Write the structure tokens for this entry.
Amino acid sequence: MKALVYIPLLAAALLLGWQLTRSTPPTPAPTHAVVAADAAAQTAPASLLRETPASSTGAPQANSLRGTEVDGRLQVDADGNLLISDQLRHLFDYYLSTAGEQDHGQIVAQVQALIRDSLDDPARSQAMDLFQRYLDYQRALVELEQDFPAAADIDSLWARQDAVQRLRADLFSPAEHQAFFAAEESYNRFTLERLSILHNPNLSDEEKAQDIEALRESLPDAMQALLVPQIHQDLRQQTQALRATGANEGAVRELRMEMVGPDATARLEALDVQRAQWQQRLDDFARERDAILSQPGLADSDRDEAVQALLDARFDSTEQLRVSALMR
């Protein structure tokens, strides 16, 4: 899942719209039914795992994938049925990510060969069917995108999300839908609700920040574990982008308030102060060390002793390990 949340708000809406409809080049094919493994089978023991063989004729042919570890696994339950999990989508996307580098038919043939080499029936037929329906989904997603404008408001983004979910429900069983898309859809819903708060003209900036934090805290713990790292990754990237353009700390604070709320913003600002103080100590030490090293007439041993004395005076033993590593 790579949902995107950007500030300013218009950019957030546009980029989220792109995220909700991203796709790989499709291939026309009929839709078939698949026997999905029972959801409880997702806890199958590791002994039932069948990993993709490196020597398979379905091994990745694209230069960009050579030497990489295959992302995703093919698994079966105790009865030999295909185990439905997010590993299947990871596997499909791993190969489909080479679109443009390889002919689409070649990519499809590699995945099909991998399935044939790795699984026996009934799991083999089930995996073939599910892969075909995933390709159908990719094709339908492109067609669905044509019904939505490129520049969309919040209502259009909600409509787009609902349409994508209906498409998935039509093509996949509940177990498949859950395994393939649950985390992504939860993140998208959270993002849209967050954008709705940000666009609410009746709320002050402080109220918006508080509502966003309450929204995040209202999520189940398991979902927060999925969302919070992505939110902070997005925040780091956007903060770096803001600072790279010369934005002041007020703009950074506004971004943080909107994305993670007042409490987390206060913690991040305290961390900024700590980092700035640490960097200043490093800069002061480096300047004085350079002055010692540049003194003429000092023996190497005297320079080493003077630098060590400076290090001892400025940093404790734990900090000295960090300083030494940085200075190297």
User: Anything to note?
Assistant: Residues 22-147 form one domain. Residues 249-293 form the longest helix (45 residues).
